Amino acid sequence: MRMHRKSRLDERLMSCADIFTAADVTQKNMKIAAEERDFLPLEEIFGNDNPVRLEIGCGKGKFICELAAREKNVNFVACEKISNVLIEAMERAKAEGLKNVYFLNCAAEVLARYFAEGSIETVYLNFSNPLPKQGYKKQRLTHPRFLLIYGRLLKDGGKIIQKTDDEDFYRFSLESYKSCGFKILSVCEDLAAEPVEGDVETEHERLFKSRGKKIYRIVAEK
Fold first, then answer.
1. pLDDT tens digits, residue range 122-156?
2. Three-state DSSP state, 36
3. Which of 18, 92, 94, 222 ranks highest by number of CB atoms within 10 Å?
4. CA distances from 6 to 10, 12, 78, 80 (A)
């Protein structure tokens, strides 16, 4: 189903211009665009050199805003390619007065354009589209082509923390991490039954749990 454009979207995006960067989309070839360099000035944005964590696909921002409110000494960048969705996350961060969250409106394929190698402490992948149809696996955000991107951005010892409700995607991801040299630190195949201390629930997670679906969680280390 096509998403309706939100009311006054351009005006609302302008009102959040101080907390986000929109990707330069003049180069339509993603591979070429990813090779260009336009690093975010993270220390200037946040006014400090605290560790930086990145959420890829932040949705409406419940997860990243709750985490940022809890961990004031960490800087968070939330990436979301759909501005129609991103606006809700940004408005939430502003309403809550969060100073340690910044937003990036871009696709995961071009993240290397905006972050220097080894600049990210943790990557969060929360309920990414599992793309179950045959032929679409290369588009999954844990396909090796994406893990190579995250691997360059992560510090040595940096982590990817992933949650999904899709068992096939979970098992696919486990194999992808292993094939790309990541170390599996922990797995959980039913987060409701085995809650992880400090874990923050997402919008999707709350919905899926209410429907009795299992939530799978992986922590993988570079």
1. 999 999 999 998 888 999 999 999 999 999 999 99
2. coil
3. 222
4. 9, 9, 20, 16
Residue 2 predicted with pLDDT over 60: no
> Comparing C-alpha atoms, which of 211, 162, 212, 154 is closest to residue 187?
162
Pairing of strands 101-105, 20-22: parallel
For the beta carbon of residue 48, count every other beta carbon within 10 angstroms. 11
Please give the DSSP secondary-structure letter assigned to residue 134.
T
Q: Write out the H or E segment, with its range, that includes residue 220.
A: strand 216-221
Any idea which fold 25-221 has?
Answer: Rossmann fold (3.40.50)
Tell the residue number behind the tokens 């290369």, with chain if given.
138
Given a cut of 80, whether residue 3 has pLDDT beyond it is no
Closest CA relative to residue 101, chosen from 77, 119, 126, 73: 77
Classified as helix, coil or strand, 12 is helix
User: pTM of this prediction?
Assistant: 0.94
DSSP string, 145-211: HHHHHHHHHEEEEEEEEEEES-HHHHHHHHHHHHHTT-EEEEEES-TTTSPPTT----HHHHHHHHT
> At residue 169, does pLDDT exceed 90?
yes
Amino acid at 1: M
- Rounded Cα distance between 145 and 147, Å, is 6
